[in-house]
């Protein structure tokens, strides 16, 4: 009898959690604005912690729930969900540290950043429990809103759902010598963090009760219904902004759902908002849009002119009924959620007294940054990547995939020659819209053909055509083409020198809708198409004895601190060492290394070398 009672109690608890946000929002919770880190040698801890999603609510989520978070190691206890906002500055040398304090392997991918492959934070840059990851790279991006999140193989969805995400703001160059246009834009736009410049991270989560009856985040099951909308990790939040020119940096950090965002007055009518930036930077001009479709991974920036509007109330609205496409087209519409998704306000904005700098903007549109899109005449190669749902039958239905192939960590799917410009076409032959994301580069959409092979009018889609992108929603039947230049970071063709491309619906990515490409340095004959035997060297590196037992010597020269990784033949990093500057033979202890064949990957300021070594036990 007791077990029946507990089961009934558990069922009632699950239902109460599932329907926690089924009613109209009350907006009783103050939004959390993540703390800011503005230094080049920042240190993040990946932690397990507890978070209250609805601290002022009367619903079941007004309780402490286990979460993961990125934490500023120098200010512990300041984040219980998501992570600090990182500010990067153009041409600065960054030397971050990420320490994994949870019991699962993870990574930290700088989504949207143009960085060397070894610093990208993809599946090959594993951070084992208790380990540090210490990449080093120069900021080569200008003026963008990016983000960081885990990218461990098969664990990305789980870790993002548990709370691991954060925003990156790449500051405008303020020295006119670097870029006079960007310096001018910086002077006229709102730039004071949490005063007139605000980060907004939109997500959904499904909650359940665990075996002990406690509320927990459900990371195993899909959620076609019963999910909860969150902004910056808070249910039904409100925020106060000044009666000034205000900038909102919006990120769809969800694992699955596309949103159709708009800005409404208190009476439900549309409020004029000016879009000024896409994923990777400024558009050529501002655009007034009533709503915008944002898929997982995409970022946009907006200006709201609130001067003279003190006391007004606005809302960020999800216009589900206005989503385009067929019934099963976009995950997050009414049909794909069993009717659960409906038009809904996600954030209430209260306009307070004026604050921040006085804006010089007197009218819209305003001109921003001239397009840096490469000319089509520069294209040296074209390739097509096709979304399908075939071949891989997994109960109850086949898996989504790219080119009828599932992700394999040991396979290089595409080889792109360094300093080349290519035209890629993403052909969606599946029944769902998928957000395409590619690491390393930014691209410009050149053409979109619909299912009738008719080109879309560019003027109708400024959010797709008028700015640099790294993440874009490709709807069923579309053939979306873009141009991109792969201008540096060339390496040998090796599986662990790969960047990723994938669908940013994270369960699709985790289930294999992902591939790898290498930016090839051009060394060697012909055009390589597969993983070569490790042996690439741009610097001197000798390893002895080989085979080795207790001691191993690395003979080389580097004038700065460097990183040495030992990688097994499954592509897993089994040990990573931070080495001091040295000249000659450096003694290494093989403790902690498994026996057998390993790959030594030595990455220095001067270059990179890869060697095989046999460890005998």
In terms of topology, how is this protein built?
Layout: H1 2-18, E1 29-30, E2 36-37, E3 43-51, E4 65-72, E5 85-89, E6 93-94, E7 97-100, E8 109-111, E9 132-133, E10 137-138, E11 144-149, H2 156-162, E12 166-171, H3 180-188, E13 197-209, E14 215-217, E15 227-231, E16 237-242, E17 245-252, E18 259-265, E19 274-278, E20 281-288, E21 291-294, E22 299-305, E23 313-318, E24 344-352, E25 381-388, E26 393-394, E27 397-398, E28 401-402, E29 414-417, E30 420-428, E31 434-438, E32 444-449, H4 462-465, E33 471-474, E34 479-486, E35 499-503, H5 506-510, E36 514-520, E37 541-544, E38 551-558, E39 562-567, E40 573-579, E41 582-589, E42 596-603, E43 608-615
Parallel strand pairs: 1-16, 2-5, 3-7, 5-12, 13-17, 16-24, 25-30, 29-36
Antiparallel strand pairs: 3-4, 6-10, 7-9, 8-11, 11-12, 13-14, 13-15, 17-22, 18-21, 18-23, 19-20, 19-22, 23-24, 25-28, 26-27, 30-34, 31-33, 31-35, 32-34, 35-36, 37-38, 38-41, 39-40, 39-42, 42-43
């Amino acid at each position: 009898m007791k077990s029946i009672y507990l089961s009934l109690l558990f069922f009632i608890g699950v239902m109460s959690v599932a329907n926690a946000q089924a009613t109209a929002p009350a907006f009783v919770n103050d939004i959390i604005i993540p703390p800011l880190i503005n230094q080049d040698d920042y240190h993040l801890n990946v932690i397990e912690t507890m978070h209250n999603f609805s601290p002022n609510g009367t619903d079941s989520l007004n309780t402490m729930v286990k979460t993961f978070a990125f934490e500023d190691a120098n200010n512990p206890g300041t984040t219980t969900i998501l992570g600090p906002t990182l500010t990067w500055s153009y041409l600065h040398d960054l030397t971050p540290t990420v320490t994994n304090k949870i019991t699962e392997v993870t990574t930290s991918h700088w989504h949207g950043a143009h960085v060397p492959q070894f610093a990208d934070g993809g599946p090959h840059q594993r951070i084992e429990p208790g380990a540090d990851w210490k990449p080093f790279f120069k900021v080569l991006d200008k003026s963008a809103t990016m983000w960081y999140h885990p990218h461990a193989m098969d664990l990305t969805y789980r870790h993002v759902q548990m709370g691991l995400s954060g925003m990156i703001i790449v500051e405008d160059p303020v020295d006119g010598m670097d870029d006079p246009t960007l310096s001018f834009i910086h002077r006229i736009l709102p730039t004071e963090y949490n005063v007139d410049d605000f980060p907004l991270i939109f997500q959904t989560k499904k909650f359940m009760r665990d075996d002990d009856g406690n509320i927990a985040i459900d990371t195993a099951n899909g959620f076609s219904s019963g999910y909860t909308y969150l902004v910056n990790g808070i249910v039904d939040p409100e925020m106060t902004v000044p009666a000034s020119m205000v900038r909102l940096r919006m990120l769809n950090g969800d694992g699955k759902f596309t949103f159709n965002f708009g800005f409404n007055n208190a009476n439900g009518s549309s409020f004029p908002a000016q879009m000024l930036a896409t994923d990777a930077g400024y558009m050529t001009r501002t655009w007034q849009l009533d709503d915008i479709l944002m898929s997982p991974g995409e970022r946009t920036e907006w200006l709201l002119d609130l001067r003279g509007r003190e006391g007004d109330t606005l809302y960020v609205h999800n216009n589900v009924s206005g989503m385009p496409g067929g019934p099963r087209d976009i995950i997050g519409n009414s049909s794909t959620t069993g009717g659960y998704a409906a038009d809904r306000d996600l954030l209430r904005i209260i306009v307070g007294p004026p604050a921040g700098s006085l804006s010089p903007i007197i009218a819209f549109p305003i001109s921003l940054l001239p397009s840096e899109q490469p000319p089509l005449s520069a294209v040296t190669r074209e390739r097509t990547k096709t979304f399908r749902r075939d071949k891989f039958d997994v109960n109850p239905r086949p898996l989504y995939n790219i080119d009828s192939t599932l992700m394999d960590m040991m396979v290089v799917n595409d080889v792109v020659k360094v300093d080349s410009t290519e035209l890629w076409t993403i052909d969606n032959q599946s029944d769902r819209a998928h957000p395409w994301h590619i690491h390393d580069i930014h691209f410009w959409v050149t053409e979109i053909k619909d299912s009738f092979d008719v080109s879309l009018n560019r003027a109708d889609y400024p959010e797709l055509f008028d700015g640099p992108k790294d993440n874009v929603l490709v709807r069923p039947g579309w053939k979306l083409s873009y141009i991109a230049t792969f201008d540096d970071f060339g390496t040998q063709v090796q599986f662990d020198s790969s960047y990723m491309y994938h669908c940013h619906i994270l369960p699709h990515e985790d289930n294999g809708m992902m591939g790898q490409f290498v930016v090839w340095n051009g060394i060697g004959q012909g055009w390589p198409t597969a993983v070569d035997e490790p042996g690439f060297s741009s610097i001197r590196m000798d390893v002895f004895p080989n085979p080795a037992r207790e001691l191993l010597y690395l003979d080389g020269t580097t004038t700065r601190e460097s990183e040495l990784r030992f990688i097994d033949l499954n592509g897993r990093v089994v040990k990573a060492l931070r080495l001091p500057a040295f000249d000659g033979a450096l003694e290494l202890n093989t403790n902690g290394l498994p026996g057998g064949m390993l790959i030594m990957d030595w990455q220095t300021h001067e270059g990179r070398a890869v060697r095989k070594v046999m460890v005998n036990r």
